[in-house]
């Protein structure tokens, strides 16, 4: 079931300040056009956003949700009101997640990002042999949606049936099997 909450709208303007001699940005506030959902980007003007400044969202009672990317490594003192009705979306094992837990926030939607896809590196088959062949998604408990797309460089050598997760040796030679997550773009290959 998909629920669309029209009362939550993305913030139309965040205020940023360059920090550390221009190495990264920090979010310093919401500007004049405040909505009730704040989505902090990973980058601003192609520079990483790594910090939420002291008092950035203090006394902003209309905020219902804040999405904090994994790029945030520091959250300043009193950056966010300890308002129990604010819902946070954060990556597990991120600095933002750790800070929110230490500060006692409990209304967390924890996201576990897809980090990598793995395949067995080298597979040897004899003509006509079939073998189960699956991708390993890491971490296994990712909350990211994953859509695997399989390709075989030379199907006269090997075929792959995604429905049964089976490789079949169709002829002599060497080829490469590639799996790509069409959502994140992460790939793995095996020969």
Describe the model.
This protein has 191 residues and is mainly beta. It has 1 helix and 17 strands. The strands form 5 sheets. Strands 1, 2, 4, 5 and 7 form a 5-stranded mixed β-sheet that branches. Strands 3-6-8-9 form a 4-stranded parallel β-sheet, with helices on one face.
Helices and strands in order:
Blueprint: E1 15-19, E2 24-29, E3 37-39, E4 43-44, E5 47-52, E6 65-67, E7 74-75, E8 87-91, H1 95-102, E9 108-111, E10 116-118, E11 130-132, E12 136-138, E13 148-152, E14 158-161, E15 166-169, E16 177-181, E17 187-190
Parallel strand pairs: 2-5, 3-6, 5-7, 6-8, 8-9
Antiparallel strand pairs: 1-2, 4-5, 10-12, 11-15, 13-16, 14-15, 16-17
Compact description:
This protein is mainly beta and 191 residues long.
Keywords:
single chain; 191 residues; mainly beta; four-stranded parallel sheet
User: Which structural class matches the secondary elements?
Assistant: mainly beta
The H-and-E topology, N to C, reads as: EEEEEEEEHEEEEEEEEE
Give the DSSP E fraction (strand runs of 2 or more residues).
Answer: 35-45%
The general outline is elongated
For the largest beta-sheet, the strand count, sense and barrel status come to:
5 strands, mixed
Helix content: under 10%
Mean pLDDT: 85
Radius of gyration from the CA trace?
Answer: 23 Å
Instruction: Count helical runs.
Output: 1
Beta-strand segment tally: 17
Query: Regarding quaternary structure, how should these chains be classified?
Result: single chain
Low-confidence stretches: 1-12
